[in-house]
Design brief:
The complex is a heterodimer of chains A (253) and B (318). Chain A has helices at residues 39-45, 76-82, 98-108, 114-127, 131-134, 147-160, 177-190, 203-209, 232-237, 242-248; strands spanning 2-10, 13-19, 28-32, 56-64, 67-68, 83-86, 165-169, 195-199, 212-218, 224-231. By secondary structure, chain A is α/β, with parallel strands linked by helices. Chain A has a single domain, classed as P-loop containing nucleotide triphosphate hydrolases (Rossmann fold, 3-Layer(aba) Sandwich). A ten-stranded mixed beta sheet of chain A has the order 5-4-1-2-10-9-3-8-7-6, with helices on both faces. In chain A, strand 9 (212-218) and strand 10 (224-231) form a beta hairpin. In chain A, helix 4 packs across helix 6. Chain B has a single domain (74-316), classed as MetI-like (MetI-like fold, Orthogonal Bundle), CATH 1.10.3720.10. Chain B has ten helices and two strands. Chain B has a two-stranded antiparallel ribbon. In chain B, helix 6 packs across helix 8. The longest helix of chain B is centred in the N-terminal third of the chain and has 53 residues, at 13-65. Chain B is extended. The chains are: A alpha/beta (253), B mainly alpha (318). The interface between A and B is medium-sized, with 19 and 18 residues.
């Protein structure tokens, strides 16, 4: 995916401005920066979730394989089958079973064939490292799972439609360290299957899981700005911008 | 996005599935959009259907009622039309003042009781609180005419049983206030509870963790935070009670005089509509539209006013 001068404003107030960089395919890109730097806002612009927010305006161009996702004629619903999302808190559909949750995206898009659904569910649950623990209770309610398992269920649900890009908005911030570790491992394994963009407050996490890292800060007028985008190793060892160094060394933010 | 099948390399099941999902999603999109639009149209139609009666009522009220509004209408008391001038029917000042006094007294005791009881419901985790809540819920469902009977028994004719002795003061404004107030209390209680419960628990816990007692937290934190919602809740309950007819139907008498003394017989707007609309005189029957329009206008002003005030209060705090 590619950002070209992307800005997002809510009711005329800019939340993030002038983002421009490329998200490499089948790699993990992390978005880091302090609260208010617009990371989540940028992430939600990538699958047009802001369409549902009154007063939100996304300007500039976000491209998926060369096509502008806003003006390129891709219907938003189809776009979101190609760009999946995992949220901060696990949000399985509360009335559905584990199995129904995983295949919900497929069903929403008109796929009914049982063999296809079962195959996709198994593949997605294996990929989310959940298959072994739930394969014998697929009809159980999603709420019977622990928080970490619920989040992996949400990852499986997102993967089942086989998106090209997976957006993750602080996916481990509400989980315990063990669940967090499991999901971090997953992220590294999943990149052969899907391009991943992950927002995180945890710099160690960004360093551990991502290949490319984009650093944002809140500017003078409280709008987020892109400070530096670099391969993660470089950004965390010898960043170009002194503000990046300050942030990763914990001097502010 | 095509899966290039190359000799000797097995096809990637993931890419295959991705392509299949995209294909089916694209193929079914037209149908899904159609269904979606159909549902939007359906819910829009339901909304319009729900609003038609409201606008029909408002239209006919304005159409038939507005012409009765005049200085006389608001300042004079009702009179029976004479043969010479069948349109000389006076005004409704007695009913306006009656409503003001009756509903004012009702609000005076029902709002404090309702809000404080609502606070108890919102803050207490006791069994008594949940019993009280159920009772309040049942009471909001009570047919309002029962409150009329209750007020008639307790205040108008008096009560002397179970060791309770009430003298009975006859048809009077207070009897109406009593009926309206008792009707309002459970509604205010439930609405206040909802508004107060909207204050997030962590904010209460922050107070507890500082060693504050629950009463102090309620006074200094919970009530101020919930105030905009609380005001709206209370005024909505009040505006509903203003239009109630059944509870006052046979307890306030029906005075044709301007009466400020709540111990005497009084008039009130809902009752005046009933009186005029069932009178044998054509002009009085038509005038009922004018009273109805004014009553709706008052209720509307309270409603909108409370919303605007709450919105203003919310803005002031940012």
């Amino acid at each position: 995916m590619r950002f070209e001068n992307v800005s997002v404003a809510f009711h005329g107030r800019t939340a993030i401005r002038d983002v421009a960089f490329d998200v490499p395919k089948n790699k993990v890109t992390s978005l880091i920066g302090p609260s208010g730097s617009g990371k989540t806002t940028l992430l939600r612009a990538m699958n047009r979730l802001h369409d549902m927010t009154k007063g939100a305006v996304v300007s500039g161009s976000i491209r998926l394989g060369g096509t502008d996702i806003y003006t390129g004629g891709i219907p938003p619903t189809l776009l979101r089958t190609r760009i999946g999302m995992v949220f901060q808190r696990p949000n399985p559909f509360p009335t559905m079973s584990i199995y129904d949750n995983v295949v919900s995206g497929l069903r929403f898009n008109g796929i009914r064939k049982r063999s296809v659904l079962e195959e996709a569910a198994e593949s997605a649950l294996i990929a989310a490292a959940l298959w072994d623990s739930v394969s014998n209770r697929l009809k159980a309610h999603a709420s019977t799972l622990s928080g970490g398992e619920q989040q992996r269920l949400c990852i499986a649900r997102a993967l089942a439609v086989e998106p090209e890009v997976l957006l993750m908005d602080e996916p481990t911030s509400s989980l315990d360290p063990i669940s967090m570790r499991l999901i971090e491992e997953l992220v590294s394994e999943l990149k052969s299957r899907v391009t991943i963009v992950i927002v995180t407050h945890n710099m160690q996490q960004a360093a551990r899981v991502s290949d490319l890292c984009a650093f944002f800060l809140m500017g003078e007028d409280r709008a987020g700005e892109q400070i530096e985008v670099a391969p993660t190793k470089k950004l965390f060892s010898k960043p170009d911008d002194p503000r990046t160094l300050d942030y990763i060394q914990g001097r502010f933010g | 996005m095509t899966t290039g099948v190359i000799e000797g390399i097995p096809p990637d099941p993931i890419l295959e599935r991705r392509e299949m999902v995209q294909r089916v999603a694209r193929k079914t999109l037209g149908r899904r959009i159609l269904i979606s639009r159909g549902m939007v149209a359906l819910s829009g139609t339901a909304l319009i259907l729900a609003l038609v009666p409201l606008f029909a009522i408002l239209y006919s009220l304005v159409e038939k009622g507005l012409r009765w509004w005049s200085v006389e209408f608001f300042t004079k008391v009702p009179q029976f039309p004479s043969l010479i001038d069948p349109n000389a029917i006076g005004g409704i000042s007695n009913a306006i003042i009656g409503s003001l006094v009756i509903d004012g007294i009702a609000a005076l005791f029902a709002i404090p009781i309702g809000v404080v009881a609502g606070l108890f419901l919102a803050e207490s985790i006791s069994k008594f609180a949940s019993m009280l809540r159920t009772t309040a819920e049942i009471m909001t469902g009570l047919p309002s005419i029962l409150l009329g009977i209750f007020a008639y028994q307790m205040i108008v004719i008096g009560f002397d049983e179970w060791g309770v002795k009430l003298p009975g003061i006859g048809f009077s404004g207070v009897a109406g206030s009593f009926a309206i107030g008792v009707l309002m209390i459970p509604v205010i209680m439930k609405a206040s509870e909802t508004a107060l419960r909207g204050v997030p628990t962590p904010i209460r816990e922050a107070g507890l963790a500082l060693g504050a007692r629950r009463g102090v937290i309620a006074r200094k934190v919970v009530i101020p935070t919930a105030l905009p919602g609380l005001i709206t809740a209370v005024l909505l309950a009040f505006s509903r009670a203003v239009g109630e007819t059944a509870p006052i139907l046979w307890v306030i008498g029906a005075s044709n005089m301007v009466e400020w003394n709540p111990r005497k017989e009084m008039a009130s707007m809902p009752l005046q509509i009933f009186e005029s609309a069932t009178s044998p005189y054509v002009a009085l029957r038509d005038e009922a539209w004018g009273i109805a329009l004014f009553l709706v206008f008052v209720v509307l002003v309270i409603n909108l006013g409370s919303r605007l005030f709450a919105a203003w209060l919310q803005r002031e705090r940012r």
